[in-house]
Design brief:
5-stranded parallel beta sheet, 967 residues, disordered N terminus, 7 strands, 64% helix, mainly alpha
Amino acid sequence: MGNVGVLSPVLLAGYAIIIGQLKPTPSKGKPVALYNLNSFRERIIALYRRASPYDEGRRPTQQDLADAIGLSRSELSSRLNGLKNARLTHRDTKAIVRTLAEWGAIISKAEARELLTLVECPSFSAAEWQTAPLADLQEDEQTVLPPPMPTPQATLPPRHTFLPRPLTSFIGREGELASVVRQVTERRLITLIGAGGSGKTRLAIEAARQLRDRFSTGVCFVELVSLRDPGLIAGAIARSLGVAATDDQRLVETMQRYLQEREMLLVLDNCEHLLPVVAELAHQLLTACERLHILATSRELLRIAGELTHQVKPLSLPGKQVVISPTSLSRYEAVQLFVARALTLQPDFYLNVDNVATVQDICQRLDGIPLAIELAAARLRMLTVAQISTQLADRFRLLTGIAHGVQPHHQALRALIDWSYDLLPANEQALFRSLAVFSGGFTIDAVVGVMDIAPLDVLDTLTELLNKSLIYQMSDVADEPRFAMLETIREYTMLKLAEVSGEVAIRQQHAAWYLTLAEAAVPQLRGEQQVVWIDRLEREHDNMREALAWSLVGQPALGLALVGALARFWEVHGHLSEGRRWLELALKTENAPPWIRAAALSGAGSLAWGQDDYPAARDFHQQALQLRRELGDRRGTALSLNNLGFVVLRMGDLTTAQVYYEESIDIAREIGDFEAAATGLHNLGTLARIRSDFTQARALYAESLELRRKVGDKWSIALTLHLSGAVAADQGDYQAAQELNEESLTIRRQLGDKQGIASSLLGLAVLAYYQCDYDIAREMYEQSMVLFQEVGFRMGLATAIGRLGDISYGEGDYPRALQLGEDSLRQFSEMGNKWLITYALNRQTRTLAALGEEQEARSLYEQGLTLHLELGDRQGVAEFLEGMAGLAVAQHASHAATLWGAAETIREEIGAPLSPTIRASYEHQIKAARNQLGNATFARAWLAGRTMQQNEAILATTRSAQSPVGI
C-alpha cells in the first residue's frame, strides 16, 4: 500500500511526462524572420473581420483600422500592399497589433508575436507588454510560424474539394470552431483529440467547410474508420485526392508530386486504430509539400514533429449554481443539441417548465457527450423525456441506434466505447477497467497504492490512457496532478470490471487505501496543516463515499473505522447531515473492536450536537465514554467528558456540565494533553459566560486560546476567537469584539467551514446591530441564514431569525418583530436549549409591551425569569428587571425607577453595559419617568433600587405598584 502522505520522487519526476502530453513545450528556437507582407496583409484582413462587433452590430472595416492607427485608408492600403514605395513602419505594425488586441481579434501574446515576425518588426518591450491592451492577452506558449506560403500564381492547379454533407445541423462550439479554423491556418498539422462520441469528426467537417475558400486548391476529407489493413491507407487518401493508384512507395511519391504545387487542406478522420502508418504517411506528405495542411481526428496523438493538438471536450453543461429554467438552460450546448434533435422527431417539442429539469438531468448524466445525447433524443420516437431519464440507469442498453449511413461503432454507446477498449493492449485494458473503483478523480499516487503496481508502470499506462482520451486531467489541480473519467466512461469500466474476477480484491484495496488516508488526516485536522488536509479530504470525498458504500456491505468493520476517521472532517467542513447518515449506518455493525466503535460513537455525538439533537448527542457520547473508561483510554475519556459537558450545558444542566469539564481538565493536565486541556478551559469559559461572569469567561477563553495556538488547531482557534468576541461584546468592548470576530471569520473561510463562517458573520452582525447599523446587520444575518440552512445548523438559523426580529423592533415594525421572535422561540423550545429560550422570551416580552399587550408580556417575563435564575444568568435577571420597569413606567414611574436602579447595580457587578441600540429606548423611558416624578423623587427611587440585593429586587416586581419598595 502506497504512502498516502508523501509523493514518491519517481512519481514527482514522472508528472512532467504526463503534463507534457497535455501542454506541448514551447520551441526554444528563434522564429524565422522572413519579410512576408502578403501573408501579413491577409492575416490582418482576416483578423479585423473576426473582431468583436461595435454596439450597433457591424464589424470593423479597414477604414476603422486606419482611423485607429492614425492613417488615411488609402495610405494604410498602400503600406499593406507595398504600393508607390510605401513601406509599413515598425510604428504602424505595432499600432495595428495593439488595435487588433483591443478589438478582441488577437487573444494571445503568441499571435501578436507571430504578426510582428512576419514583417520583421521587433517585439514589444517588457514594459509595453504590461500596458493595455497587451497586458490582457493570454500567456500562451509562443508558437513558431511555418515558412509563409508563396503568393499564389496567376495560373493555379484546379480546385479539388471533397467534404461529406452532414444531414443534421452543427450545434454550438462557436468559439471552439473559430479556434480550430485559426489553428489550421497558422499550423500545418492539427490533431483533434477527444473521447469517442465527443464530436471530433463533426467539428473537423465544419472547420474544413469554413476553410474551403482559404485553400486555393481545395479541401479533401478522408474517412479511415472502416479500414483495418494499414496497407490500404495510402490508397484511400489517393482515391479521395483523385490520384491514380500505383504500388505503395510510388503512390506516396505520386501524392507528394501532386500536392507540392497545391495549397490544400487534407482531413484525416478516425486515425486511432492505424496510428503508426497514418503518422508516417502524414509526416512524408508534410515534409515534401510545404503548402499542405492536415487536420486529423483521433483519440490519441499522432506524435510527429510540428503537431498541435486540440482537445475536443464534451458540450457545455449548466453548473450546479445555475437556476434551472427554459431560458437559462437554452444557452448550454448540450441542451441545444438535445432540443435540436428532438425537433426532428417531434416538430412541436420545446423546453418548458415541465420538462426542462428532466432534459437538464439527461444531458448532465450523459456528460455532454454529443453522440450519447443524439442517441437519447432518438428515443423520443417511443419514449417521453421522463421515461428516457428513468431508463438512463441502464444507459448502455437504452442508447442504441439503427441510423443508416452511420459507422457501426457509432450505432450504440457501448459499441463506441468498445471500439476504444478493444484497441488497448492487455495491460492498459486491465488498469483502465480497474480505475472504475475511483470516484471523483484520482492521483497517480492513489493508483499506485490501490493497484499495487510499480510507479513507473502506472505512469506509463496512465500516460497512454490520457493520450487516448479515455481519461482526462482535471482543471482544479492543486498540489499534484489529478485525473478522472467521464461518468459515462466510468460506468462502462464498471461493467467491464464486473465481467472479470478480482473486483472484490480491487475494491477492498481501494477502501483500505482511503482508510489509511483518512487515519493519516485525523491528527492533521487539529494541527498547522489543517487547511491542507481539509482540502485534500474534500478532493477525495467521492472516493471516501465509494469506499464506504462498498465496505459497509462487504467489510463492515473497515467501514466503521473509516467513518470514525472521517467524523472530524465532516464536522469542521459542514457535512453534518451526510456524516450522521454514514455514522449511524456504520454503528449498526456488530463485533467491531471497541476503540473503533468508541471513535465512531464520539463522531456521531459531535455531529448530532452540531444539528442541535442534544438527546441523541448525549446518548452517543455516554456510550463512547463508557467504552473509553473500560479501555483505560485516558485521552479519549477526557475528550468524551468534554463532549458530554457541552451537550448537557446546552440542555441547561450547568452543574453536571461543570463536573464533566473539571474532570476532563484534570485528566488532560495529568497526561500532558494540551488539546484536551484547551477544550475543557474553553467550555468552562462558556459556562462562565452563561452565568454572566464575563471577566472569568474572557480569562478562560484567553487561556484556552493560548494552548490552542500552540497546538495549531485552526478550527478550534476560530471557535474560541468567536466566543471571546461574543464576551467582549457583552462587556461593551466593541472594538475588541470586532477584531476577534474578523480573525475568526478569516480562519473559517480558509478552512471552508460553512457553519463557522455563518457563526462569525452572525457575531459581526450582532456588533453592527448593537451600534445601530441596521443595514449591515440585516445583510450579514441573511448571509448567515443561507449558510446555516445549507449545513442544517438549526440553532444558528433560529438565532439569526430572532436577531432579524430585533432589527424590525428597532425600526418600529412590531408585528414583524413579534412574528420573527415567535419563530425563533418555537425552534429553541423544540431543541430544549434553555439558555437561548430565555433570551427569546425576553425578546417577545419587549415586543408585546410595545404593542400594548402588558398582561401577556408580564407572563412571559416571569417565565424567562425562572429560567434565568435556574441558569444563574445575572445578565438575564438584569434584562428582566429592565423589562418589568418598562411595563411599570407609565402608571408607576417611581417603581420603574427602583427596578432600573437594581438592574444597573447587577450590570455593574458583572460588567455588562447596555448596548447603544437598547440604550436609546432605555433612556427615552427614563426621561419620561424623570419628567413625571421630578429629579429629587426620581433620584430617591433610583438609589433605593441601587442598594437592593438581587433577590430583593426580584421580589419588588411582585409587590403592589402603589407601594413600591424603598419609597
